[in-house]
Amino acid sequence: MKSLKFTLSVLMLFALSGVMSCSDDDDGPTVSERQLELLQGVWSVSQDDDVTFQNTNAPGDWSAFSITFNMNNTVTVSGQPTDVDVDLFELSSFEISGDQVQSFTLIFNGQDGEQATVNITDSEMLFSFSITANDDKLGARTAAVTGLWELSLSKN
User: Fold this and answer.
1) What is the rounded CA–CA span in Å between residue 81 and residue 50?
2) Long-range contacts for 60-63 (Cβ within 8 Å, ≥24 apart)?
């Protein structure tokens, strides 16, 4: 009888230690890791009307525009229009904020005032932000760019 109690006690300890050693760490990537995975890469416009300002085509030639998000939270922009006085992007770094994988906020240059909303799939992104008269969001340096900007971007 003592050996049966001992055996049952040992089995109970093994069962409990097995249950206690299980963790949720093996559930896969976190929300922020999945957001970063979706975001990283080169995103560009497919056609000139993929960039809108105040719900109409944005001024300038945006056909060469692209934005690159890197795993080390750096960002580079190229192909801003040179044919108009619009210099929107002066970006170097980004942070991700939000608890949804496909819709979140980007904070640029470590400043809360420089934010964009992202709605993203594997190959398409709607990147939108608003610039008000008193802000310096996304590096904008002229009052002529105040308002709602939306960029429909495709992943290269």
Assistant:
1) 13
2) 60/84, 60/86
Structure letter (DSSP) for residue 139: G
| Tokens matching residue 86 | 């619009």
pLDDT in 10s for each residue of the chain, 156 residues: 566 566 656 556 556 565 555 555 568 899 999 999 999 999 999 887 899 999 999 988 999 999 999 999 999 999 988 887 777 888 899 999 999 999 999 999 888 778 899 999 999 999 999 887 655 557 665 556 788 999 999 999
Type of residue at 133: A
Residue 22: both structure tokens together: 């299980």
- The answer to whether residues 153 and 43 touch, using CB atoms and an 8 Å cutoff, is yes
3-state secondary structure of 144: helix
At residue 89, the 3 state secondary structure works out as coil
The alpha-helical segments, DSSP class H, found in the chain are 2-21, 31-39
